[in-house]
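Z., the sequence and structure:
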Amino acid sequence: MPPFFYKAPLAIPRKVPKGRIIPLCSPDIRIGKCLITLTPKRIKAESLDKLRFSLKRILSKQKERNVDVHATYAVTKNPEGVKMGQGKGRIHHYVARVPAGYPVVHLPQLKPLNGSKHPLFWGFARAVGNLPLRCRFRSQQNEFEIDKLFVKTKQRLGDDVHNQRKLLKSRFQHC
């Protein structure tokens, strides 16, 4: 079966009021690495394109990356020399309304290094300079300590042997 390619939504060429950015109802948690916004803000289409290209350059082309924010809202600007109150003017650029806590970029397949719980965010750190808002890195990997049963059993066996030796020493020393 041929691969499916996701096409970004097209920008709406209609004049829209500035409005309020609607906050998220619940946290948006995804498996993998995410770049999370800390404040609600509008992001221009140019900065999103710079972010996409820098991620493509930093990470290899084969790695899957999802930029889930799309600039679809039009922003108008009056021509220079026109007084206030003469209408909205023409569409100047497009923006994306991003609420706080929304993942802007998502890398699903990256896992932390062996032996460390904190993965490296070097790819994100270099790409964040293209965004005009404060962001934070989040890594959601479902690797729980309970899944590492062999480590727990070794520790438990070692503790049991140690406790048994202590018990035997205490019994034979009093005789």
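The chain has a mean pLDDT of 78. The longest helix spans residues 149-173.

Let me know what you think.
H.
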